[in-house]
Amino acid sequence: MLAEVFARYRDTKKKRRMVDFDDLLRLATRDLEADPVYATARRWRFRYLYVDEFQDVNPLQHRLLTAWLGSESTLCVVGDPNQAIYSWNGADARYLVDFDRFFPGGSTVTLHDNYRSTPRSSPRRTRCCRPVARG
Asked: Nearest-CA neighbor of 109 among 94, 99, 124, 122?
């Protein structure tokens, strides 16, 4: 049943000459890997890359990022492996945990303080988000 739905979805996209987000990632990766002139132009234009929520990167996204990086690129990623929520989509927090293995020469900065839930902000959040009694 699910395979039939996916096949219909794929066929409808093709008939309508449409792409979805994964198609965009796949096509961009294909073009960067296949055309060195195109890749060089993209790398020059977008030399500074920033990826938030890196713990939720899947293999296709990682491949695109790797294809995009050039010798002059600067990469900054932010993430928390304890907040990984997209494993259902193939996300793999090991890209973050083993960052230095995937990106040799990179460095890791670990933030030990949680500024989102400081003792000063927590009581305010609790008061603000408390259920309202209805009569």
From this structure: 99
**Could you write out the DSSP letters of every residue in 47-80?**
-EEEESSGGG--HHHHHHHHHH--TT-EEEE---
Maximum CA pair distance of the chain? 68
3-class DSSP assignment, residue 104? coil
What does the pLDDT read at residue 109? 84
Taking residue 53's Cβ as centre, other Cβ atoms within 10 Å add up to: 16
Task: For residue 124, list its beta bridge partners.
Answer: none
Q: The domain 2-104 belongs to what CATH superfamily?
A: P-loop containing nucleotide triphosphate hydrolases (3.40.50.300)
Single pTM value for the model: 0.78
Distance CA 69, CA 63 (A): 10
Closest CA to 18 of 29, 26, 10: 10
